[in-house]
Amino acid sequence: MEFGGGEAISVNVGARLRQLRQERGLSIRALARASGLSANALSLIERGRTSPSVSTLYKVADALGVPITALFRDRPQRRPVIFRKASERTRVPFPRGLWEGLGGEHFEGRVEPFALTLESGARSGPHPMIHSGHEFVLCLRGQLEYQVEHEVFLLEPGDSLLFASRLRHRWRNPGSTVTNAIFVLSGFEEGERPSEHHVNRQDGTAQEEDREQGG
User: Which residues contact 91 (CB under 8 A, 6 or more apart)?
Assistant: First the structure.
């Protein structure tokens, strides 16, 4: 099973950006002021004339008050049976990592499996996460350090972890190699999207990357 490869599923980020902006009654100029981006850059993104960087998408998401995954969502009809080819996974990049949906984003039940590919130093953020339901983690490659309340677990290939998600938790890749892991979130409250806690930016990484890229 391979993760982190292949092309991302086609999602019209520009159209989603326009939809989210209009739902909030914002003009392009208002969003430009809130995000620190130029109105021209936002217009080009909405019209599909340019491919925004991850750091740019984080600025836009922050200004709109939504997680970055909202820009990749196509609001699909949820179904009771989901078959997903490896080449058809929804892929959402975030600083030092990649989130890959395994069908849960289209499933009508309260279970959401996904995969994370994490570069060395990747982390969920400086602050612990809390959400409803339960969380199962299986490390496939590399190392994944998980802190649940005051206990720290080091997962290596084949190791797993299961806990109640109401417990404060966070993760990081402490090793020098790429980490691949499978996550399964279940039993969460209706309408909640707990996987988004795992891709939200909670530190300054995106801004740092943006400065390095000069945009």
Answer: 6, 8, 9, 98, 99, 100, 101
Angle at 193 (CA atoms; ends 43, 103), nearest 5 degrees: 90
Report pLDDT digits (tens) over 58-114. Answer: 889 889 988 777 777 665 577 899 998 988 888 888 778 888 989 888 888 889 999
The residue type of 144 is L
Residue 160 Cα distances to 15, 127, 143, 153, 155, angstroms: 39, 22, 11, 10, 7
Element (H, E) at 186: strand 179-186
Q: Which residues contact 8 (CB under 8 A, 6 or more apart)?
A: 90, 91, 92, 93
Largest CA distance in the chain: 50
Domain regions of the chain by residue span? 86-208
d(CA 189, CA 147): 23
- Residue 188 tokens read as 């969460």
Does CATH number 2.60.120.10 belong to domain 86-208?
A: yes
Residues 210 and 60 sit within 8 Å (Cβ to Cβ) = no
Cα(70)–Cα(81) distance, integer angstroms: 23
pTM above 0.90, yes or no: no
Please give the single-letter amino acid code of residue 113.
P
The C-alpha angle 103, 145, 107, rounded to 5 degrees, equals 10
